[in-house]
Design goal:
single chain; 165 residues; 3-stranded parallel beta sheet; nicotinate-nucleotide adenylyltransferase activity; nucleotidyltransferase; EC 2.7.7.1; ATP binding
């Protein structure tokens, strides 16, 4: 919700209709007279992340519903994963499957965010797996370390809790 609201605020603050003389197309339609299309925000995830929706006490069902109903998902599948089957087996996800977009990797890449986080927690290098700026951010904010994992252990994941701040 937080990022969506920020995107909307930025979108609405931009001046989309600043042209005094609307451009005419060959069909005579006024291109700049059309209403701007609101940006869409979707959760981009891998198939392994999608399957965390079934992990007990990790997600609240109402949060999953809000994500797939209001925003939607773009799920990248890897070799050996079948997110479409997982969606069909979930009553909630199958209800909103029209808002879940599956993307097949056309170049095999077996590096997953889950593996990156696991390596970071063990103190292993992830150089060349993710951008240097991301590595710097992770180090600066002390995330995905063994200590941060211990600190968060036992806490129910509340992915949309920023809305309440």
């Amino acid at each position: 919700r937080h990022h969506y609201n920020e995107a909307l605020r930025a979108f609405q603050s931009k001046e989309f209709m600043g042209n005094e003389h609307p451009a005419e197309s060959s069909t005579g339609d006024c291109l700049s007279c059309q209403q701007p299309v609101l940006p869409e925000l979707k959760l981009l995830c891998g198939a392994d992340f999608l399957q965390t929706f079934k992990t007990p006490n990790l997600w609240k069902e109402e949060d999953i519903k809000e994500i797939v109903e209001k925003f939607g998902l773009v799920c990248i599948s890897r070799a050996g994963s079948d997110p479409s089957q997982f969606i069909q087996e979930s009553d909630l996800l199958s209800e909103f499957q029209h808002n879940i977009f599956l993307v097949r990797e056309w170049i095999q890449n077996e590096v997953s965010a889950t593996q990156i986080r696991s390596a970071l927690c063990r103190g292993l290098s992830v150089k060349y797996l993710i951008p240097d700026s991301v590595i710097a951010y992770i180090a600066q904010h002390n995330v995905y370390t063994a200590e941060s994992e211990r600190r968060n252990e036992g806490h129910l994941l509340q992915p949309l809790s920023l809305q309440n701040t």
